[in-house]
Amino acid sequence: MWRPITFLAFRSDGDRLGRSPAASDGTRRTSNEAAPHQICGTVTLLSPRDNDGDGRVGAPTIGRITRLAVDHSPFGTGITATGYRTIFLEMTSCMHRVALQMGLTHLDAVVHPRHAKLYRRVFGAEPIGETFACEEVGGSPGQYMRADITQPSHFHARLRDRYESKAASQSLIAPRS
Hints:
The chain is α+β, with helices and mostly antiparallel strands. Helix content is 21%, strand content 33%. The protein starts with a strand and ends with a strand. Mean pLDDT is 78; it is low at 15-33 and 166-173.
């Protein structure tokens, strides 16, 4: 019923000061050796396998955002709130472009109620229904949210250019299906 596309953000093991971290055997890598990458963020876009909507002209085609997570740990390289925000914006803007290319018009997400404000502020998402006990996370509270992704003008004004810009398509984030 759904086609999953997972977006991963990576970071290099080398820190921002250009030092080569120790390899697993305790030796140091030289500068010409490639540093391994570690995942520091992920988000999955679910697209309906039959992307024809319900057959009505102009009917919305709705995808789902799942498993959005960004590692908050310092990685030993001093990731900051700005770094966290950059990872979040890179992943979601790449996901937004792919969703539009697939013909999706709206994205839904079930989020913890404390995160609902973020989805509303960044994407202009609106809550649908009341908060409920979400069985997928052991009965923790969930809020169903929906955003019209065809209208970036509804997105947060300071972040909007990430979702409107064609230049942003040169992302470091790559989808995996």
